[in-house]
Design a protein that fits this description.
mainly alpha, about 80% helix, rod-shaped
């Protein structure tokens, strides 16, 4: 073989076939930097998972509150319909008495006018 270079090794950071005198030290620094980035990424992922779990609990809590609110809204609607019916009947009775009182008053006035002329 005419070429006396070492074969390519992707794990040698210098890009040369044979590591130089500082290659071992540079490799440790790069490995440490990569490990620090990996640790940071893992920590961010753990925080994201924790937040997701917390949101899941919050969503469950919100769903329970929404169910209770829906139940309370239905109860309020039933109660308000009951009150509305009661007030309609009360209003109808009041108008009935007013009309009856007006009719009686009109009859009394008509009788007074009729018998007062004689």
């Amino acid at each position: 073989m005419a070429n006396h270079e070492q074969p390519y090794d992707p794990y040698i950071p210098s890009g040369r076939g044979t590591p130089g005198p500082n290659a071992h030290h540079e490799g440790n620094d790069r490995t440490a930097a990569l490990q620090a980035q990996i640790d940071d990424t893992v920590n961010v992922m753990r925080q994201n998972i924790q937040r997701t779990e917390e949101r899941g609990g919050q969503i469950d809590n919100m769903e329970e509150r929404a169910r209770k609110l829906n139940y309370d809204a239905e109860q309020f609607k039933r109660g308000s319909n009951r009150v509305m019916r009661h007030l309609r009947w009360k209003n109808a009775r009041m108008w009935g008495w007013i009309i009856l009182g007006g009719a009686i008053l009109a009859i009394i006035i008509a009788l007074a006018i009729h018998f007062g002329r004689k």
